[in-house]
Specification:
Length: about 500
C-alpha cells in the first residue's frame, strides 16, 4: 500500500486532509482525517446545540424553503460563535472553527457526509447502509471505499428526511423513494428499508463546480482543435447536432463544453432531468428541469411538457438532455424543421447505431426527418483505461428515391493505436448545408475554421480554461473578432480577459 495523492478540503474556516491510498498503481481507499472529539467536548457541543435551538426559532416557511438554508446557516453560525465565546473565552480561533463546523454539519447538514460533498474531485457519494463504509466515485480514481461509516440506520433515515425537507418533499415508510434536486445542483436519491434490503440507501450525484471546458478536452486529447473549430462554426451558424455515446462516455460533458460557442444574442432553452449543463454568464440562457409527481401522483412536469412549452418561449436554440421516447423526438425534429437550432444527446455507440435507434422503436422517427440533422458526434469511453474520446464525427445521408433509407457518412474517426482523430471521408452534405446557411465558399469556410482553430490553440497554450474565461473569449470573438485575432497573433490573448 502506498499514498497516491494527498490534498485538503476546506470547511467552515478549517481544513481536513484527504489521502488516496492504493497498491500496485491502483487506487483502493479514500481516507479523510476527520477531527476527533473527546466525550467532554461532545457533551459541550450537545449543550451548545440545545442553546442554539432555544435561541433561534424557525418558521415552517423557512424550514420548507430550500433557498433559506444559507440564511439559516448564518444565524446558527453566529449563535454558535457567541455561545462558544461565552463558555470558553480562551478558545483559539482554529479550534473554534472546528467546533462550529461539527455543529453546523450535525444541525443543518448531513454530518461527515458534508466533507465529501465539498470535495470537488468526487462525482458520486453512495451510502448503502450503516453496516458498511460510504463509497465514492472519484474523477481520477474511480470507485473507492472511504473510512466514513454512518453510525446507525436512524441517522441515514434522518439524512434522507433532511434532503426531502430541503426540496419540500417527504420520505416515509409508505413513500420510501425520494429523488431530489438540491439547491447546490446536486441530485440526491434515497431508498428506505425494506425496499432496500441491506438498509437505508442514499446516492448523491454531485454537480460539477468547475466543469470541463474546450481547453481541458483539447489538452486531454478527447478531441483536437480542428474538430472543435468545425463544431464551433457549425454551432455559430445554427446547425443541428446530436451527440451520441454509451453510458458515462461523456456526452453531456462534451455538450457542455460546446455551449460557449453560441452567440450571446441568441435565446437558449435547455431541458434536462437533472441540471448538469453549465453555461458561461454571457449567454442568454433559460435552463429548465423536469419534476417528478408528488405522492398523490400530481404535479409532474415531463420532458415532453417542457419541450412543447419551450417552443412558445421564442427560442433560437433548444438543448434536450436526452432523446428517449417517440413523442419527444417528433417534437424535437419538428423544431428543427421550423427553423430552431437543436442540440440533443442519445445513447448509441456509433453513427450507424444512432440512425438505427432513431428510426426504430421506441423512438421510431420517420427516416426522412433525419435530413434535418447536420452533424452527429459520437463519444467513446475505454472501459479498461477510463479515457474518453470523440469516436466519430459524421453526417446522415438520406436517400428518398424508393424506400427512404439513411446511411452514415463518417467524416472523422478516432484511431486507438495512435490515439488521434483522423479524417475518414469527404463530406457530402455538411459543408454544402453550411455554405447555404452562410453564403460562404469552401475556401472562405476553411479560412473561418482555421481562425477558430488558432484561437482555441492560443487558449490551450495560455491555459484559459475556466468556464467564464472561455465565455469571455467567445464573447470577444462575437463582439470584436478582428481585435481578438490581432491579440492571438501577438501572443496576447490573455489581454482579452481584462
Amino acid at each position: 500500500m502506498e499514498t497516491i495523492e494527498i490534498y485538503s478540503i476546506k470547511s467552515y474556516g478549517f481544513s481536513v486532509q484527504v489521502k488516496i491510498i492504493g497498491s500496485k498503481g491502483k487506487a483502493m481507499f479514500y481516507t479523510i482525517s476527520l477531527p476527533n472529539f473527546s466525550i467532554p467536548t461532545l457533551a459541550l457541543l450537545d449543550s451548545v446545540k440545545t442553546s442554539i435551538i432555544t435561541q433561534i426559532s424557525l418558521t415552517s416557511s423557512e424550514i420548507l424553503d430550500p433557498k433559506a438554508i444559507d440564511k439559516i446557516k448564518e444565524r446558527f453560525m453566529t449563535a454558535a460563535s457567541d455561545i462558544l465565546k461565552k463558555e470558553l473565552p480562551n478558545l483559539d480561533e482554529s479550534t473554534k472553527n472546528v467546533l462550529i463546523g461539527r455543529l453546523m454539519n450535525d444541525m443543518v447538514g448531513l454530518g461527515d457526509v458534508e466533507y465529501l460533498i465539498l470535495d470537488e474531485g468526487l462525482e458520486e457519494i453512495v451510502i448503502n447502509s450503516s453496516r458498511e463504509p460510504i463509497r465514492i466515485y472519484h474523477k481520477r480514481y474511480g470507485w473507492l471505499l472511504t473510512n466514513i461509516t454512518i453510525e446507525s440506520e436512524a441517522k441515514i433515515n434522518n439524512y434522507a428526511e433532511i434532503i426531502g425537507r430541503r426540496v419540500g418533499r417527504q420520505i416515509t415508510s409508505l413513500d420510501p423513494l425520494l429523488d431530489a434536486h438540491l439547491v447546490t445542483g446536486d441530485r440526491a436519491n434515497a431508498v428506505l428499508y425494506p425496499i432496500s434490503t441491506k438498509g437505508h440507501t442514499i446516492t448523491i450525484r454531485k454537480f460539477a463546480r468547475d466543469p470541463w471546458t474546450v481547453t481541458d478536452l483539447i489538452k486531454n486529447k478527447t478531441a483536437n482543435s480542428q474538430i472543435f473549430a468545425l463544431i464551433w462554426i457549425a454551432i455559430q451558424y445554427e446547425m443541428n447536432i446530436i451527440i451520441s455515446g454509451g453510458t458515462a462516455s461523456g456526452k453531456t460533458s462534451f455538450l457542455n463544453t460546446c455551449l460557449p460557442f453560441m452567440p450571446p444574442n441568441h435565446r437558449i432553452i435547455s431541458i434536462e432531468d437533472t441540471r448538469e449543463l453549465q453555461a458561461p454568464s454571457f449567454l442568454y440562457w433559460a435552463p429548465l428541469v423536469t419534476r417528478l409527481p408528488n405522492p398523490e401522483g400530481k404535479g409532474e412536469v415531463s420532458m415532453l411538457d417542457l419541450l412543447v412549452n419551450s417552443l412558445r418561449m421564442r427560442p433560437d436554440r433548444i438543448i434536450l438532455g436526452e432523446i428517449r421516447r417517440q413523442r419527444e423526438a417528433e417534437v424535437l425534429f419538428e423544431a428543427m424543421h421550423t427553423g430552431h437550432s437543436v442540440y440533443a444527446t442519445l445513447h448509441a455507440d456509433s453513427i450507424a447505431e444512432t440512425i438505427s435507434r432513431l428510426i426504430h422503436p421506441p423512438i421510431n422517427v420517420p427516416p426522412n426527418l433525419l435530413e434535418a440533422v447536420n452533424l452527429n458526434l459520437v463519444m467513446f469511453r475505454d472501459r479498461r483505461t477510463g479515457i474518453r474520446r470523440l469516436y466519430q464525427v459524421g453526417e446522415f445521408l438520406v436517400n428518398e428515391d424508393k424506400d427512404t433509407t439513411v446511411k452514415p457518412n463518417i467524416l472523422y474517426r478516432w484511431k486507438p493505436l495512435k490515439d488521434e482523430i483522423v479524417a475518414h471521408s469527404a463530406s457530402v452534405k455538411f459543408f454544402e448545408d453550411l455554405s447555404r446557411h452562410t453564403g460562404m465558399s469552401q475556401p472562405e469556410l476553411n479560412k473561418e475554421i482555421s481562425e477558430r482553430k488558432k484561437i482555441l490553440e492560443a487558449m490551450v497554450k495560455n491555459n484559459i480554461r475556466q468556464i467564464d474565461q472561455v465565455g469571455q473569449i467567445m464573447k470577444e470573438f462575437y463582439i470584436n473578432k478582428d481585435e481578438l485575432l490581432k491579440l492571438v497573433n501577438k501572443g496576447k490573448i490573455k489581454d482579452a480577459l481584462k
